[in-house]
Task: inverse folding
């Protein structure tokens, strides 16, 4: 066999392997979407059918009429967006200050920020709940946001980027050119941090979008649920409304998938963010 | 245009004093180079003049004003940084017009100032580009353009050519000099490269360890250095130094290997000294016996690595010269060209 034919054969084998892996990874997703269109009877057939024999929209109709699914999506969206804005703003400011104005106290504060990342949320979840309750902010986006305004990883990420990619001379040049400190931050530093801030925004958005433990204890009223809490609501202690849950999940996936497709580049950037630099 | 005067300037970083009371004055329109090995405090002086660091004690005057407490932007200076410090997200024109925009100048005013500066520097066809699309030399020019646009009273340059390759550096040296001649703005130029200082500056300030060693015109420093440090720092290749001893009444200065060199002007001296011989002042002829270690022929001149009195030395001959390693040859130096230094203090003898 010639070398060329061998590479071609190897490539074909690799393709087949990757295709199989993709299929395995995608099957649950396909099943989920398919289940949304199945009748309750077909749902329980074994082996499960990959494509519904008798597709129906009944589940979706039921989900949208019997539960405030759109309201939940809206709540999640608002929560995730506001959290993203807050995290991007606080991380940019704090990261820049810690990166470029390093005096002793601020370094201590930075270390304190970092230590919050090693304390599991569950540890202070309950005290935080009582505080939110005392503030009268249960069942509101405000109460929900309280744990999601600052992200220690975000501050760390921006600090590292500031140190790695914004030379001191640039700020000094701006100062000599006559720029004030806020101007420098707004017109020089922020534009240069566009990449890492976008990456951080994606991380922050998905963190808020998929969070579950905090919303489920802060939100008790059905109309104030986020989508994650709403979905969990389909399974009660005794029953799981599998067809409705599937339909709702399939519907909810639409914004996530859309956001991922649009922000794919930043998402990858965010995950590889420790690498820095362009 | 303005004079710059520095009086008893001190700067400490924590417990470490980086500048130990520096004073010098620069007349209006003069090109001054601060030169010295790294860590000598030359950049610190520049940063103090620019207002990027706080002055520990002493005064900085620009024109007739003390500017110690004046904000950098109000000092009427422009600074060119070693890494150019161009705003990466702004075009060349926006970079150059940045300071005028902050001064709230009108758009046409900014445009014409930028255009004018760009023409002086020959970068008017690059105005729409981003810094990352430019070569090193072009970035350097943009950085200079940004300084020119402001029409400052003083230009501050912090090793602006050290990121360029050798050929471009020579070219930019000439351009900078021509620019200074054209604009006549007082210029303070920091470099560790004595050739840059020698070729561009009207006045060179040689620094070491936070002190000024000597201030003078380039050739003055070359011809009459006040101490061994300046003698060794100025000139390329560097001056050769040898320990010698002499007795009163004799004009012979004896090397450690017993050879001697006659300095009639220093007949009255007694004890140990250091003699300095510039490589280019050494000629073929009767005198010192030198062992050749290597020779480099460049065509126009010959550079010899040699050994005298158990010490490395460099000899620069204007003529062609062939010698095999290990051969002994005789060389002489005009006694009036030799410099004598006190071994302990390093100060030059007889000045």
Result:
């Amino acid at each position: 066999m010639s070398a060329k034919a061998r590479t071609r054969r190897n490539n074909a084998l690799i393709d087949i392997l990757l295709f199989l892996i993709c299929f395995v990874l995608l099957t649950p997703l396909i099943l989920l979407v398919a289940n949304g269109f199945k009748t309750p009877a077909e749902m329980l057939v074994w082996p499960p059918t990959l494509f519904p024999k008798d597709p129906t929209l009944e589940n979706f109709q039921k989900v949208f009429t019997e539960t405030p699914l759109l309201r939940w999506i809206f709540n999640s969206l608002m929560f995730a967006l506001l959290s993203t804005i807050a995290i991007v703003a606080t991380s940019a400011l704090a990261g820049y200050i810690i990166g470029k104005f390093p005096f002793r106290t601020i370094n201590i504060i930075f270390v304190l920020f970092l230590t919050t990342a090693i304390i599991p949320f569950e540890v202070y979840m309950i005290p935080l709940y009582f505080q939110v309750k005392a503030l009268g902010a249960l069942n509101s986006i405000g109460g929900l946001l309280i744990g999601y305004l600052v992200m220690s990883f975000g501050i760390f990420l921006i600090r590292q980027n500031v140190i790695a990619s914004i030379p001191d001379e640039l700020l000094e040049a701006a100062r000599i050119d006559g720029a004030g400190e806020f101007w420098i931050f707004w017109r020089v530093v922020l534009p240069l941090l566009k990449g890492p801030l976008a990456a951080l925004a994606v991380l922050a958005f998905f963190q808020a979008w998929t969070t579950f433990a905090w919303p489920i204890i802060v939100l008790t009223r059905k109309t104030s649920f986020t989508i994650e809490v709403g979905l969990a609501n389909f399974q009660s202690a005794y029953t799981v409304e599998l067809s409705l849950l599937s339909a709702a999940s399939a519907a909810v996936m639409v914004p996530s998938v859309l956001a991922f497709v649009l922000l794919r580049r930043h998402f990858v950037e965010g995950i590889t963010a420790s690498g820095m630099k362009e | 245009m303005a004079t710059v005067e520095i009086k008893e300037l001190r700067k400490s970083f924590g417990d470490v004093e980086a500048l130990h009371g520096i004073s010098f004055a620069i007349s209006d329109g003069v090109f001054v180079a601060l030169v010295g090995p790294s860590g000598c405090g030359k950049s610190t002086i520049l940063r103090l003049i620019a207002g990027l660091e706080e002055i520990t004690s002493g005064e900085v005057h620009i024109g007739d004003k003390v500017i110690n407490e004046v904000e950098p932007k109000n000092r009427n200076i422009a600074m060119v940084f070693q890494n150019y410090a161009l705003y990466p997200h702004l075009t060349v024109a926006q970079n150059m017009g940045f300071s005028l925009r902050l001064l709230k100048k009108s758009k046409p005013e900014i445009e014409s100032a930028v255009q004018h500066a760009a023409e002086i520097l020959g970068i008017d066809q690059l105005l729409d580009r981003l810094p990352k699309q430019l070569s090193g030399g072009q970035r350097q020019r943009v950085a200079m353009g940004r300084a020119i646009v402001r029409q400052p009273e003083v230009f501050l340059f912090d090793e602006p050519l050290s990121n360029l390759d050798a050929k471009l550096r020579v070219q930019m040296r000439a351009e900078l000099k021509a620019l200074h001649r054209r604009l006549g703005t007082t210029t303070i130029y920091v470099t560790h490269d004595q050739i840059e200082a020698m070729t561009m500056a009207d006045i060179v300030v040689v620094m070491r360890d936070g002190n000024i060693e000597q201030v003078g015109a380039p050739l003055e420093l070359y011809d009459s250095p006040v101490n061994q440090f300046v003698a060794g720092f100025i000139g390329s290749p560097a001056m050769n130094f040898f320990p010698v001893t002499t007795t009163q009444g004799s004009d012979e200065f004896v090397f450690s290997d017993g050879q001697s060199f006659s300095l009639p002007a220093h007949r009255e001296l007694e004890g140990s000294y250091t003699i300095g011989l510039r490589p280019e002042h050494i000629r073929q002829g009767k005198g010192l016996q030198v062992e050749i270690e290597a020779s480099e022929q460049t065509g126009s001149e010959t550079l010899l690595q040699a050994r005298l009195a158990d010490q490395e030395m460099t000899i620069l001959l204007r003529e062609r010269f062939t010698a095999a390693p290990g051969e002994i040859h005789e060389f002489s130096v005009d006694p009036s060209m030799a410099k004598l230094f006190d071994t302990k203090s390093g100060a030059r003898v007889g000045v």
Summary: The radius of gyration of chain A is 24 Å. Residues 3-56 of chain A form one domain. The CA atoms of residues 159 and 192 of chain A lie 13 Å apart.
